[in-house]
Amino acid sequence: MNQKASIGLPLVTVVIPAYNHAGYLREAVRSVLNQSYPQIELIVIDDGSTDDTAQVLATLDGDFRWFSQDNAGQSQTLARGWDEARGEILAYLSADDCLESQAVEVAVAALQADAALAAVYPDFNLIDPASNVVRRVEAPDFDYATMLSSVICPIGPGAFFRRSSYRQAGSWRTEFRQMPDYDFWLRMGLTGPIKRMPQVLANFRVHPGSQTYSVTTESRADEVILIIDDLLASQLAAAVPEDLAREARISAFLVSAQLHIRAGRFRVAVDRLKRAVDTRRNALISIRTLRLLFNAMFNRISHRLLWTIRSVLKPGGGRAG
């Protein structure tokens, strides 16, 4: 896109919160700097990393800002980045993920085509530690009732949202460490429509350090219950039908049980399953419940096995530069 064509285009700010992902950070930064869209502000915040994050950032060329701070956590780091952002459109990118080169251009076009939209998000690839594509993830179309009742966030990497919607929704809540993104999108979804862009525009990396597949503490495993309880108690959710609220509570207990099983806290998991049954007696009789429990026991192991097999069968395969 030439300079003349870029006149009048909105500035997009992408914030990368970086904590101990030095091995993947270079790829994440380059994926933003190499976008086809010309009006981008990139802010990278080293959140008190103890690895070589600062050294990697210091050696990277390109037009972006970065600085280090004492460790504050992902939510507070993002809030700081967005406070310093100048863009009309905002986004975040995990330091171990990366964008496809057309991501910003396509997202801006989608937002400009419909002024009512609060946010847009794409399909994405699941990639392994060496940046090999494991599979394509076709994200579901956005439906607020489904997101609430199933406690499933359809929005992965590569999402973009308007600053005006962000002001209404508020930032990530610092008290949440396990699912702050889900809490954020629940609130963002109340500010306006959110639309899926049906093409792969981002890459989500799974690796041994991924929070998605990590063992979590007891309080973090119960965080989803607090998120649902807080939302349903808020004035924003006053119009949520009781049956939808009940399904959301059941799902929260099931997801909490899943996380406790993954951590080996089986007694606590049984208690959360009992609370789901107390909410609705047949809560455990569903394919989704069985899928959650299976995922809790085998998903992390299966992904690690898959990328190990791929690395053995693909000699010389390395991480993309």
Task: Please supply descriptive tags for the structure shown above.
321 residues, alpha/beta, Spore Coat Polysaccharide Biosynthesis Protein SpsA, Chain A, 2 domains, nine-stranded mixed beta sheet, 12 helices
Structure commentary:
The protein is an alpha/beta fold. The chain has two domains: 201 residues, Spore Coat Polysaccharide Biosynthesis Protein SpsA, Chain A, CATH 3.90.550.10; 95 residues, no CATH class. Helices cover 44% and strands 17% of the residues. It has twelve helices and nine strands. Strands 1, 2, 3, 4, 5, 6, 7, 8 and 9 form a nine-stranded mixed β-sheet that branches. β1, α1 and β2 form a beta-alpha-beta unit. The radius of gyration is 20 Å and the shape is globular.
Q: What's the domain count?
A: 2
CATH superfamily of the largest domain: Spore Coat Polysaccharide Biosynthesis Protein SpsA, Chain A
Counting helices, strands and paired strands, the structural category is alpha/beta
Q: CATH topology of the largest domain, which one?
A: Spore Coat Polysaccharide Biosynthesis Protein SpsA, Chain A
Strand content: 15-25%
Biggest sheet, in brief?
Answer: 9 strands, mixed
- What's the pLDDT, averaged over the residues? 87
Number of helices: 12
Short account of what is shown:
By secondary structure, the chain is α/β, with parallel strands linked by helices. Helices cover 44% and strands 17% of the residues.
